[in-house]
Amino acid sequence: MTADTTEAAEPGGTNGPEGTQGSDGTKESQGNTRADGTTGTEGAGGTAAGAGPAGSTGGPAGTGKSAGPGPRALAWRRRRASAARFWKEYRKHRAGVFGLAALVLFALLALTAPLTVGSDVDSVTGAPGQPLQGPSGHFPLGTDQFGRNLLGLLVWGSRVSLLVGLLAAVLSVAIGALIGITAGHFRGWYATVMMRVTDWFLVMPTLVLAIALATVLSRSLGTIVLAIGVTTWPTTARLVRAQTLAVESRPYIERARALGGGHWHVMSRHVLPNVMPLVLAQTTLIISSAILAEATLAFLGLGDPTVVSWGGLLQDAREAGAVSSGDWWYLVPPGIAIAVVALAFTLCGRAVEAVLNPRLGVSR
Predict the structure, then answer these.
(1) What is the DSSP string of 84-130?
(2) Which residues in 169-195 are b (16+ Cβ under 10 Å) and which e?
(3) Among 32-36, 234-238, 348-352, which stretch is predicted with the lowest mean pLDDT?
(4) What distance lies between CA 310 and its chain's CA centroid?
(5) Minimum mean pLDDT among 68-72, 106-110, 194-198: which range?
(6) Taking a C-beta distance cutoff of 8 angstroms, is the pair 180, 244 a contact?
(7) Pick from 338, 300, 303: nearest CA to 318
(8) DSSP assignment, residue 68?
(9) Average pLDDT of the segment spanning 107-126
């Protein structure tokens, strides 16, 4: 009986081998339960993760929130907002708006010249009128010494004058900005040499240097652009250097250098964006001087004789004796066009300078 009872108790007992296995089985079952629980927790964590970054990207496990704009979208949004603020402030300057309207009108005339006056307007053999014919219904501004329509020549000449003035101003500002930024950044002997060269160009007459270059080189539009660009940069260089020195004295430049920023990083990422408003305003102011310089060189006979420009028209009028003979229609329209465009660029430049630097207090 005792043996039977013991044998009967062994399969279901808690102290026998089977009972121990049962206990182990129970533990394993609990361990599995814990594993399942852990798995369930990980699933909940996955759901939470889905509600986090995955949800922010619009994933299926997320909460469905829309994704935010990327860095490029934010950058373009800031640029559009900045442009809107600039235009809002620019419209407050009536003189600047008048200058901009005049420039837009001249630009449209220059761009549509092949359609409005034709590309053969400067042809001498196919001149439609008589030499030095006064203004009339058929020729509103009269004709030149070859019988060509002066109104068509005036419109066609705007292409060359505006193009040369713009390219010469861009070249001048590029040289001045490069020398100004590098001289303000590196200091030492390099800055000393660059500033002495700048002072030499400042004391030398710009027109004399431009005439010398235009005389030595071949007579072409590229020569005129080069002659004006390499002689009008010193003012920009001094202004940009002064602004560079002011920018590099700020604390964030020291932090950028402490974090390992090199010369190129400091100049391109920190200095250049801060001097660009000054460069932009200086460009609009130099364009007017470049147009006047181009007209002067063409009037002196140093321009390209194969192209029509406003200065070239004045030179042709002088050679034809329009001053002594009283042919005012040959002289006045090109002179007025040069004066209006130069004044328009000056007004735009002053307005841009006032918007970008309100402390100047430029009148409206």
Answers:
(1) HHHHHHHTT-HHHHHHHHHHHHHHHHHHTHHHHT-TTTT-STT--S-
(2) bbbbbebbbbbbbbbbbeeeeebeebb
(3) 32-36
(4) 28
(5) 68-72
(6) yes
(7) 300
(8) P
(9) 87
Give the torsion sign (CA, 325, 327, 330, 332): positive
* Report field, pTM of the whole predicted structure over 0.85: no
Residue range 265-284: mean pLDDT, rounded: 87
How far apart CA 285 and CA 351 sit, in angstroms, is: 10
Nearest to 145 by CA among 153, 137, 155: 153
**Has residue 34 got a pLDDT over 80?**
no
| 355, 97 Cβ separation under 8 angstroms | no
Q: What is the pLDDT of residues 314-323, one digit of tens each?
A: 888 888 888 8
Are the beta carbons of 95 and 103 closer than 8 angstroms?
A: no
What would the pLDDT profile of 153-208 be if each residue is shown by its tens digit? 999 999 988 998 899 999 999 999 999 999 998 888 999 999 999 999 888 888 88
CB 343 within 8 A of CB 99: yes
Closest by CA position to 164, among listed 296, 258, 18, 31 = 296
Candidates 270, 244, 245; CA nearest to 256 is: 270
d(CA 258, CA 266): 11
Residue 37 — very low, low, confident or very high, per pLDDT cuts 50/70/90? very low
- b/e map 236-272, b = 16+ CB within 10 Å: bbbbbbebbbebbeeeebeebeeeeeeeeebbeebbb
351 with 99: CB under 8 angstroms? yes
Measuring CA to CA, which residue among 223, 169, 229 is closest to residue 201?
229
